[in-house]
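Regression report. Comparing outputs from two consecutive submissions.

Submission 1:
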Amino acid sequence: MSVYPIAVFIDTNIFDESKYHLEGTSPLNILKKFSDNKKVSLYTSDIVLGEARRHIKENVLISYELLKKNNKEMRKHISPSLIKDTPFASFYEIPENNGFEEVALAKFNQYLEDLNFMIIDSSGVDVNQIIDDYFQFRPPFENNEKKKNEFPDAIMISKIKSYFSEIQPMWIISGDKGFRKAFENIDGFSCFDKLNEIFDLINEQDEKKTYDAIKTHLFDKNVVNNITSLLEEKISDGNFEIDGQDCDRKGICEGYDYDEAFIDAISGMELRLSSVNDVSDNNVTVTIECKADISVFCGYDDYSNSAWDSEEKEYLYIGRGQVSEDHSVEFDSTLTFEVSSIGNEFDFKLINIEFDLEMNQWTRTNREIIESDPRGDWEADMMDALEEYHKH
């Protein structure tokens, strides 16, 4: 581990997991520091880059279509002319897609160039060995249902094994268990599922004092309680995504399209230090693994319990559906601390918390429909409106 640079191979899913975020506390941005400092030499393959570039183009287009869809929904409620010359009006303006995918690809390609990624191609691959692995169900072909999809991985694995060995070690970073399994118990290969893990190992060796001090700080009960309270507060403020749909393997979905959600309760929050990602003279960035049980109240327009006026071509009233959901979630949170030190004494001040929290069919543990009377609610609203009218 002490010999630099360390050879590191990055798989497609590592880029995908970061959503190609190349700034701030993103692992892909932190990786740039270790590359600039000659701590790592980075490798990927032509297959990985082909997949990554295809994913970038697909996801840019998906995001653009979502923007257009949301714009249509906004216009159903109010005309942008009414809020002209306000900052909000700019959200109604949808730019033409004049090569957004190409801009994104150019930034990704520049990132690869800046970090001096070395590209492993597919030439000279031992096809006979891959065919033998295929019929013997060796990794990555142990999953019979996905054998065809594993051939690109098998090509990469074969080429990596031909390049690297115990004499020239390689660190494999991949979220694919089958891909990592292909390197198990082979001298010269170490596998991780996240970039943060290799950051932690380097910082433990090179920034030992700060590394040990931040770990000690995060074992303090009062510090943990403070972080827990701040996380719960940020989650309750609406920093989460919730998906009421249940989708099968064929992509057929059913469920609820929530347009509002409120946290009812957060309990059982557990925190564990996962990695020390970045250490500088002024700041320390860490990742903590979080677990919690969260109860949420959700609402949606229930058109199955609405009344349609066929003459006026509009709804007399639209029923509101209410659902209570319980979720057991696991998510990572990135914490940034301002650090100051005098001798061997360190002081840490928490200055930023970032996390992505999504609740969906995989985290849901319970769902209950809250019964309501949409017509009764509509009539009550009408009575309130008439009463207010007569008062004036």
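Submission 2:
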Amino acid sequence: MDFPLHTTETAPEDARETLAEVEAEFGMIPNLERTMATAPALLQAYASAWGLFEETSLTPIERQVVYQTANFENECDYCVPWHTLLSQKAGMAEADVDALRAGASLSDPRLEALRIFTQTVVRTRGNIAEADRDAFFAAGWAPQQALEVVLGIAIKTMSNYTNSIAGTPLDRAVQTHAWQKPVIKPRR
């Protein structure tokens, strides 16, 4: 069964206001939100959490590190292109944008610690070792940022899983950033 791509006219009543807000903010309604509109509570939770993540102590670039790391780990070929564009708009160095798309190390040690922490939280489903947590704090991060990473991962869980389940088609606005998870060869 195909998942509908709703508009403000075709969406369930409870999703229409949120779709209109997304359109006002982005100048369009991305296919993710159009898909999520089938479940208005999901769309509302996603939009609300997105707004709350914007209010955290993390900078726009740091938020993109969290988002893109989760996207990479969850193999979201829909979200990686969008967050490539959003990372560029946030002013992230192009080499770091490319590194996040490849699952590779970032140039800034503090951002790399954020990437590794986020990756570890995703991979272990939050059951990180004390040494991993301590390494994050040693890089200059605090308990607040550790918990804000949880919020960013929660947002990406909603979007990454939606896209996987629904097969959300990539929007034309980010076609030039199309992505497929690279095969990473294990170290010998």
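Expected: both submissions complete independently.
Actual: both completed, but the second showed a warning that disappeared on reload.
Relevant detail on submission 2: The longest helix spans residues 143-166.
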